[in-house]
UniProtKB/TrEMBL annotation:
One cellular-component annotation, GO: nucleus
Location within or outside the cell: Cytoplasm
Renumbered residue ranges of the record's region Disordered: 79-107
Organism encoding this protein: Cladorrhinum samala
GO MF annotation list: cysteine-type deubiquitinase activity; zinc ion binding
Hydrolase found in the keyword field: yes
Name this polypeptide is given: Ubiquitin thioesterase OTU
Classification of source organism: Eukaryota, Fungi, Dikarya, Ascomycota, Pezizomycotina
Length: 315
């Protein structure tokens, strides 16, 4: 029977499940309960998001008519009681490892080069940007290595990376970026480009815009940004080969790589493999604060030090 892959976005992070297309909706609900450890929730999917009817009269029906292949389902718990006001020292990393999408959904054949351009999906553990870039260079333990290198670089370049640029006192910024639960972004990509003397081309799935950090350098790596997550672009001679033999660095004169990578991202865009960070509702998993978009989340993090966020259902 045909199996389909569905992405889940829950308060604990992102993951992927596989289910028979002929399964009943109740089977999908049970699988989501098992995957997320949540029992009571609402589900939304599609673009724009719409509610998935979970009434008892609908649950026995097959999910085939919903056309969920490649969709992202937002899982929002119904119990929104805030936790105890005393926060832990730091939130724990998510305890899951996302499964990759099916190869025909995350790769494109590249017959002219005898292989495939591939999206390598990174763990959703707050270090995805560091893992995506560091993995392209073959670094072991990339998150810890790159965070420490960035911290050192900032302190060694006080004129370039001051409070006005960082949006925070440099010493405080550095003390946060070395922690494994803090996200990396444009500032870190710019610094890593200088440290490793390599262009980092970041493709935004929603807009297909390519942001180049370190233009004019000899070689490049390509990463994919989907709103709150980074993945890596690689070339594989065969989809059965391990990631260790991927090609993930190219000459900056090889613009065909970017063309092919954008073609793959166009497919991801059609699958709605992105989060609109300007208007999605976000909740702090520590104190229960609710805001809108990444800008509000960043301000809340500065004010409280809380870094555990999840997207919320809009009723």
């Amino acid at each position: 029977m045909p199996m389909i892959t569905i992405a889940l976005r829950a308060p604990s992070g992102q993951s992927r499940i596989q289910i028979d297309d002929d399964s009943a909706l109740s089977d999908l609900v049970a699988l989501i309960q098992s995957k997320t450890s949540l029992q009571n929730f609402t589900l939304k999917y599609g673009y724009p998001l719409k509610n998935l009817d979970l009434s008892p009269s609908v649950l026995p029906e097959s999910i085939k008519s919903l056309n969920l292949r490649g969709e992202t389902i937002v899982v929002a718990p119904l119990d929104t009681t805030p936790p105890a006001p005393t926060p832990p020292a730091a939130p724990a990393k998510p305890a899951f490892t996302p499964k990759p999408m099916e190869p025909d959904e995350t790769s494109l054949e590249w017959p002219e080069r005898g292989g495939h351009i591939v999206l390598r999906v990174m763990p959703d553990d707050n270090s995805c940007m560091f893992t995506a870039f560091g993995g392209a260079l073959g670094l072991a333990n990339p998150s810890a290595v790159l965070r420490n290198q960035i911290a050192t670089y900032i302190m060694e370049h006080p004129a370039e990376y001051n409070k006005a640029i960082l949006g925070d006192d440099p010493a405080r910024y550095v003390s946060r970026i070395v922690q494994p639960d803090v996200w990396g972004g444009a500032i870190e990509l710019s610094i890593l480009s200088d440290i490793y003397n390599i262009e980092i081309s970041s493709i935004d799935v929603k807009s297909l815009r390519v942001d180049r950090f370190g233009e004019g350098k000899e070689n490049r790596v390509v990463i994919v940004y989907s709103g709150i997550h980074y993945d890596r672009i690689a070339f594989a001679l065969d989809l059965s080969y391990p990631v260790e033999v991927d090609i993930s660095r190219w000459s900056t004169e090889d613009d065909e790589v970017l063309v092919k990578a954008k073609e793959l991202c166009k497919r991801l865009q059609g699958m709605h493999y992105y989060t609109d960070t300007t208007d999605f509702v976000i909740k702090c998993g520590i104190c229960g604060w609710i805001g809108q978009g990444m800008k509000d989340a960043g301000q809340h993090e500065k004010e409280t030090g809380h870094r555990e966020f999840g997207e919320m259902e809009i009723h």
